[in-house]
Specification:
Helix content is about 30%, strand content about 20%. It has about 190 residues and is of the alpha/beta class. The chain has one domain (about 10-185): Isochorismatase-like (Rossmann fold, 3-Layer(aba) Sandwich), CATH 3.40.50. It has a six-stranded parallel sheet, with helices on both faces. The chain has a two-stranded antiparallel ribbon with strand order 6-7. Helix 3 (about 115-130) links the parallel strand 4 (about 110-115) and strand 5.
Length: about 190
């Protein structure tokens, strides 16, 4: 890499909220284990890790700022020196310090993991690309849930995931796997 720092690992919305019934029927059941694998490696290498936490204003949301499931999941909880960025929108760049933090690290490329690919991941990827970032998206370190259309049609989580991944890979992200990132020694 030509940058002065390794690519930061950004972990998005991996909070206790994602385990509530409204988020059931996720595809990719190993997504959290894969995020933990990346996080462990980044910590071992002492590379930058940024946690993005969603504080939803809607009290009915599982991600409600004052709700019982708002905490970052224990498996990926921040440790000393890791940055925590709080967002209130689906996009991690809107109204947050994410852009400033990445610029302070001197990078224009980062790795994005978290939930869910067709919501906050998608919104963050699109804004990040518009800001000029190159984004690596390990597809096995994210997930989707079923989506119900306006006419009542239900698209299963895997279909939602596959379509969203294809759209993002067409021009917004560099799709990859956790194993590929762990094998890449160019960081």
């Amino acid at each position: 890499m030509t940058e002065s720092m390794p690519r930061p690992l950004v972990i998005l919305d991996v909070q206790d909220a994602i385990d509530q019934p409204v988020w059931a029927a996720k595809n990719n059941p190993d997504y959290l284990e894969n995020i933990v694998r990346l996080l462990s490696h980044w910590r071992q290498m002492d590379w930058p890790v940024l946690h993005v936490k969603h504080d939803e204003a809607n009290p009915a949301s599982t991600y409600a700022a004052s709700g019982p499931w708002n905490g970052i999941k224990a498996e990926v909880a921040p440790i000393g020196g890791e940055t925590i960025i709080v967002k209130t929108q689906n996009c991690a760049f809107i109204g947050t310090e994410l852009d400033r933090e990445l610029k302070a690290l001197g990078v224009n490329r980062f790795i994005l993991t978290g939930v869910v690919i067709h919501n906050s991941i998608d919104a963050t990827v699109r804004a990040g690309r518009a800001l000029g970032y190159t984004i690596d998206l390990p597809l096995d370190a994210t997930t989707a849930v079923p989506v119900t259309g306006l006419n009542g049609q239900v698209w299963e989580a895997q279909t939602v995931f596959d379509v969203t991944a294809a759209i993002l890979a067409s021009e917004y992200v560099l799709p990859c796997t956790v194993d590929e990132l762990l094998a890449d020694r160019t960081d």
